[in-house]
Amino acid sequence: ALQLTLAVIKPDAVAHPLISEALHQTILENNFVIVRRKDLVWRRQDSERFYAEHSERFFYQRLVEFMSSGPMRAYILAKEDAILQWRDLMGPTKVFRARYTSPACIRARFGLTDTRNTTHGSDSPESARREISFFFPDFSVEQWMEKE
Ligand code: CMP
């Protein structure tokens, strides 16, 4: 079915013009429709709120720090099966595993560390809805779906 997903180009990737351009091209080449796009910088509390589910994990502080360290680029992407399609392009969360198991994926090509892993993508329709409204509070998934 046609789905929306939230794709985020994280601060490590936005910082490098060639990498953010390559990721934009990857989105286009894979026939995603770019529904919305926005550049933004998180305050520390945005980062803490978005990743609250990880607050007990050992990497939480470094994750929060990193995600509020500089500009990000967020996309709402539409495609058949968009959520899984984008996650497949990103590859595994852990960059070193990604390089070993799927060297062509985004994180294997551009990721720096398990935290600074270039991109985020929603993992379910429920999280896509939550994350889209977190990044794009004025966007209504229901309204967009009705128009399509
Ligand atoms: P993301 O897909 O945005 O979801 C949670 C983030 O936490 C993840 O990408 C990484 O940036 C970070 N992360 C997940 N696991 C680890 C880990 N083992 N070590 C460091 N950072 C991690």
From TrEMBL:
Reactions listed under catalytic activity: a 2'-deoxyribonucleoside 5'-diphosphate + ATP = a 2'-deoxyribonucleoside 5'-triphosphate + ADP
UniProtKB keywords: ATP-binding, Cell cycle, Cytoplasm, Kinase, Magnesium, Metal-binding, Nucleotide metabolism, Nucleotide-binding, Nucleus, Transferase
Domain Nucleoside diphosphate kinase-like intervals: 2-143
EC number, as in UniProt: 2.7.4.6
Predominant place of localization: other
GO biological process per UniProt: CTP biosynthetic process; GTP biosynthetic process; negative regulation of cell growth; negative regulation of mitotic nuclear division; UTP biosynthetic process
Active-site residues, as the UniProt record annotates them: 120
Residues annotated to bind ATP: 10, 59, 87, 93, 107, 117
GO CC aspect terms: lamellipodium; mitochondrion; nucleus; ruffle
Similarity comment: family membership: Belongs to the NDK family.
Function statement: Major role in the synthesis of nucleoside triphosphates other than ATP.
Name assigned to this protein: Nucleoside diphosphate kinase
